[in-house]
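Q: Predict the bound structure with magnesium ion.
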Amino acid sequence: MSKKLYTRIKWILTFIIIAFNFFGCNKSSLPIQKQTRFLMDTYVTIQIPGGLEQIQIIEKAFDRIEAIDHKFNILEQNNALYAFNNSHSPVQDKEILDLIQTAIKIGSQTDGAFDITIYPLMKHWGFFDKSPSLPENKDIHRLLMHVGLDKLLLTDNQLSKSDTLTQIDLGGIAKGYAIKGALEVIKEAGIQSALIDAGGDIYALGELYGKPWKVGIRNPRGEGIIGSFNISDLAVVTSGDYERFFEKDGVKYHHILDPKTGYPARGLASVSIIADNPVIADVLSTAIFVMGKDKGLAFLEKTKLAEALIVTEDNQRFSTSGLQ
Ligand code: ADP
Ligand code: MG
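A: Predicted complex:
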């Protein structure tokens, strides 16, 4: 199965988060312009209330996401990240350095739960291929030696590495950055209300006809949604064990790896993060998934970086105090 087809099927099967608005069916309300494109390995939908003139702005926002996709996609063979990973060339692009700085900062705040050097393991598990499979334990241990933020050397002007086998993977942050890029384009055009949905990772700008946007959270263990949030100027980003996985001998292996063990993080089914910055929301959804319920909730209560709704593997639900 091709990667695109795989992702398409994944998308259709999961409907990670269903975004909808209260007035979508209200015939008396103004129209909403809505366009969808396949970008960043997922379906991205942008909605802006208003007339047909909004479509041009939506197109511009898609163009921005496409440019980010080219620059930050580690699988693309002619960008700076590919050169860093495969021919050890230092990265000097300021935009990439800024995003990596954010990734490293949250990586160390979360005690390495979020670690962009996870790539050699992701690759070995085959999560970027059509058919991932269970690696041998000795290979996981061998590859873990090249994982760790201490292998990255970041200065104001460049990123280099002390270990030639260290490689980086921005899959846990790039989608949030793309949402942020699209949002900037939309705001620069003077738009005050929009919904950006990148495969269930959402940002709601302003309000829809005077009320917050309503965003549903997908049930990670069944059909439909487990709840919804009324949000305005906020991102809601979810990481789940149902997004990319395979099963062997009745055990589920998914694409969010614990950098300490090299195996999929255990304990949770999904983590939804609500934060004003979509980049932070994206990183934290993966980081809290790895940290687990107790450590993750304690971290968020202490740092106040975001609110979270957590569903455990056995389908129990927990949230930060700000959501209760
Ligand atoms: P998705 O992008 O599928 O919605 P996430 O936002 O949770 O899901 O990101 C998962 C991606 O992040 C993986 O596909 C991989 O590229 C990367 N990743 C996996 N584990 C980690 C980790 N512990 N730290 C940083 N990035 C990770
Ligand atoms: Mg994410």
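A: The pocket of magnesium ion (ligand 2) is lined by residues 172, 175, 237, 239, 282, 285-286 (CB under 6 Å).
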